[in-house]
Amino acid sequence: MFDFLKKDNKKENNAAAKLFAPANGTVVAIEDVSDPVFSQKMMGDGFAVIPTDGKIYSPVTGKVVSVFPTKHAIGIELPNGVEVLLHMGLDTVELNGGPFTNSVVEGDQVTPETLVSTVDLVALEAAGKDSAMVVVFTNMDKVADFTLSGKGQASASAEIGTLTAKA
Question: Which of 87, 89, 95, 146 is the catalytic position?
């Protein structure tokens, strides 16, 4: 259903990937996100971080395959073929990129130390938007295992889980 991240690249079998907090803040289970599209896992499983500042980093090591024109979301493909969507804030597509200054483009290689966007959290709040930085695995048919080991307070780029692709 969500084919917007699909590529025909050769994948590294079922290699495990580490997951990292994309921002300083509080790591929460995806079920705790206030948008039912995410909390009910309609787009896939994942997690979110409620940020304390606007510096947003890649939650994984991979390749940027999509930067939405509205700047509110970035698609990243892991070497093992799993697709990761970093969705910045809830219901933020209608802001037409206003509070987002993205630092990556399609084709960029990213790591957890890569600043992918700077988000004006004050502007998000003024627009009445939830600031949750949601990380979703959009092709769950390729995911064998996902573990979120670190909930609660975390620093940006801190390891908080693992994901293993199916063989």
Answer: 87
Q: What is the pTM of this model?
A: 0.91
Write out the chain's pLDDT in tens, 167 residues: 455 554 444 445 567 899 999 999 999 999 999 999 999 999 999 999 999 999 999 999 999 999 999 999 999 999 999 999 999 999 999 999 999 999 999 999 999 999 999 999 999 999 999 999 999 999 999 999 999 998 899 999 999 999 999 98
Q: Does 72 participate in catalysis according to the annotation?
A: no
Q: In Å, how far are 34, 78, 129, 153 from 65, measured between CA atoms?
A: 27, 10, 26, 29
The CATH T-level fold of domain 13-165 is: Glucose Permease (Domain IIA) (2.70.70)
Distance CA 5, CA 46 (A): 16
Longest CA–CA separation in the chain, Å: 46
Which backbone phi and psi does 123 adopt, to 5 degrees?
Answer: -65, -40
Closest CA to 163 of 12, 6, 19, 58: 19
Specify the pairing of strand 83-88 against strand 100-102.
Answer: unpaired
